[in-house]
Amino acid sequence: ETGVTQTPRHLVMGMTNKKSLKCEQHLGHNAMYWYKQSAKKPLELMFVYSLEERVENNSVPSRFSPECPNSSHLFLHLHTLQPEDSALYLCASSQRTDQPQHFGDGTRLSIL
Amino acid sequence: TQLLEQSPQFLSIQEGENLTVYCNSSSVFSSLQWYRQEPGEGPVLLVTVVTGGEVKKLKRLTFQFGDARKDSSLHITAAQPGDTGLYLCAGAGGGGSNYKLTFGKGTLLTVNP
């Protein structure tokens, strides 16, 4: 099972850079999610896509911009990030939005 | 804001010992999920409990959902070093959305050989 694959695994960027995180799933799932995991804080849901349409934008700053071109791919475009945005960004997918979620191994993001 | 409190936050035990970790909330969830996350990896789903009072077993792991569907516990019998990891509970059904998972901060378990 190829599961949920995230690239890159590690990313270091300056506050003025623009980069993108990629998530790919080959499970045939119709829903995809972005989460942020910071030290000493619970996992935070950022965005939810169902059938390629965004159904949740959980008060995330506009410097994070998601894109879901098809049901297998999800991107998180980053620009003008702040040091407090350093965290592990996890992607997940599920068959439907009410089904258990399968997580990728995350992208460890460090903002200098 | 719905909160899931997990306790203890850290737990270090010797191989062969038993342990219980807890997940508590003042909110009712339609279901509750337990995940284990190992260093450098994403969370992996262990179990989903749906019915109040439900008990599920996964080898040496026993999961229980409280009668009121507000709390859950995970009991591990004869812990092994391979059980080491961050155990996360997540409640589903918050805010009327079935997909919205509310996560606890987790219990970091270390099983020493």
Q: Which chain pair has the greatest contact?
A: A-B, 26 and 23 residues
Strand content of chain A: over 45%
Number of β-strand runs of chain A? 11
Q: Radius of gyration of chain B in whole Å, from Cα?
A: 13 Å
Oligomerization: heterodimer
Number of helices of chain A: 0
How do the helices and strands follow one another from N- to C-terminus of chain B? Answer: EEEEEEEEEEE
What's the total helix number of chain B? 0
Detail the poorly predicted runs of chain B: none
Mean pLDDT of chain A: 92
Largest sheet of chain A: 7 strands, mixed
Number of strands of chain B: 11
Helix content estimate of chain A: under 10%
Please supply descriptive tags for the structure shown above.
heterodimer, A: 112 residues, mainly beta, seven-stranded mixed sheet, four-stranded antiparallel sheet, B: 113 residues, six-stranded mixed sheet, 11 strands, 0% helix
Characterise the protein shown here.
The complex is a heterodimer of chains A (112) and B (113). Chain A is an all-beta fold and 112 residues long. In chain A, 0% of the residues lie in helices and 57% in strands. Chain A is built from no helices and eleven strands. In chain A, the strands form two sheets. In chain A, strands 2, 4, 5, 6, 9, 10 and 11 form a seven-stranded mixed beta sheet that branches. In chain A, a hairpin with a 2-residue loop joins strand 5 (44-50) and strand 6. The radius of gyration of chain A is 13 Å and the shape is globular. The termini of chain A are far apart. The mean pLDDT of chain A is 92. Chain B is mostly beta strands and 113 residues long. Chain B contains no helices and eleven strands. In chain B, strand 4 and strand 5 form a beta hairpin. Chain B is globular and about 40 Å long. The relative contact order of chain B is 0.33. The model of chain B has no long low-confidence stretch (mean pLDDT 91). At the A-B interface, strand 5, strand 9 and strand 10 of A face strand 5, strand 9 and strand 10 of B.
